[in-house]
Amino acid sequence: MTDQTPAPASDDAATSATQRIDQALETIAAVRAGVGGAILGQERVIDLTLATILAGGHGLLVGAPGLAKTSLVEAIAIATGLDWGRVQFTPDLMPSDIVGSEILDQDSTGKRGFRFVKGPVFTSLLMADEINRASPRTQSALLQAMQEGQVTVSGQTYALPQPFFVLATQNPIEQEGTYPLPEAQLDRFLLQIDVPFPDRETERQILLATTGNNQLAARPALKPGDLSALQAFVRDMPVGEKVLDAVLNLVRSARPDNANDPNMAELVAWGPGPRAGQALIKAAKARAFLRGRVSPSFDDVAAVARAGLIHRMALSWRARADGLDLGELIDRLVQQALGSA
């Protein structure tokens, strides 16, 4: 008779954890492939946008017209299984056009009463197209919903669907008739993602793929509830002490009162707060996960640094007059912070 000794509980737990990791990595690889079925090139933009979603935040996509920002949002919605909607922001857009409004209604018995009609914000993924073209009042209505996950109309509070994400867009080349977002509202976006023009070979592929009968299409990869599980996995990822120190060094070095570099007071008008560090760690975790790893590294912090800081700090008038580029300054600060961690 063979003596079958059961495996220790610790071994079972380790096997279960390994299986969970493998399954999560396979799932997120399928999501990336699903989005890639509709978007050619722009791997950095795709990764940063998916990292925003996985980290449970909101993203600001900045790019010229015609760079497939809408297609990207639609592809992410399809791949992740999220309901989505798009609102074109214009100067005459009212807050009620976003969050909804109450209307006077009459039931079958003739009794009258007010009924709340939900606005387009009641979806899982909202694309706010050219958000800076709406008035500050309308912008604030959306940004309040982003921050609180709910809207209040006539004293009544209505919870938004969970999960809830906003991917807003801005056109950097047409600023006439726009209302730039205040710094405090920009801070509510986890990342600001710059969408560049494609390189020549990618643009050639786009021309061939989009001018024939066979159109590009995203592929579904997640079922309802899968995204929440992936977000929980990302939140549970450990962060090494050296990576944490690197984030702290980076965020603190970008402030005007940087004790280690007195020149920062002449270069930076205002710097990032603690929310920037939170955003960098969340985004670095998500980026590592997208790359098939279960803990963020220095490379992940460096990859998300620009997107996490560029809308949370501003150059001084003197630095702008001297032609200093904010992105290049952030890159320099990243090298110093990672080198000293």
Shape: globular
CATH class of the largest domain: Alpha Beta
CATH topology of the largest domain: Rossmann fold
Helical residues, percent: 40-55%
Protein name: AAA+ ATPase domain-containing protein
Pfam families: AAA_3, AAA_lid_2
Organism: Candidatus Phycosocius bacilliformis
InterPro entries: AAA+_ATPase, ATPase_AAA-3, CbbQ/NirQ/NorQ/GpvN, ChlI/MoxR_AAA_lid, P-loop_NTPase
Question: How would you describe this structure to a colleague?
Answer:
This protein has 341 residues and is α/β, with parallel strands linked by helices. The chain has helices at residues 9-36, 43-54, 69-80, 95-99, 136-148, 183-186, 200-210, 226-236, 241-253, 264-267, 274-290, 298-309, 317-321, 326-340, and strands at 59-62, 84-88, 100-106, 112-118, 125-129, 150-153, 156-159, 165-170, 191-194, 268-270, 314-315. It has two domains: 20-208, 3-Layer(aba) Sandwich (Rossmann fold), CATH 3.40.50; 237-341, Magnesium chelatase subunit I, C-Terminal domain (Helicase, Ruva Protein, domain 3). The chain has 14 helices and eleven strands. The strands form four sheets. The protein has a five-stranded parallel beta sheet. The chain has a two-stranded antiparallel ribbon with strand order 3-4. A two-stranded antiparallel ribbon has the order 6-7. A hairpin with a 5-residue loop joins strand 3 (100-106) and strand 4. The longest helix is centred in the N-terminal third of the chain and has 28 residues, at 9-36. The radius of gyration is 23 Å and the shape is globular. Residues 55-199 form the AAA+ ATPase domain. One of its GO terms (molecular function) is ATP binding. This is AAA+ ATPase domain-containing protein. It comes from Candidatus Phycosocius bacilliformis.
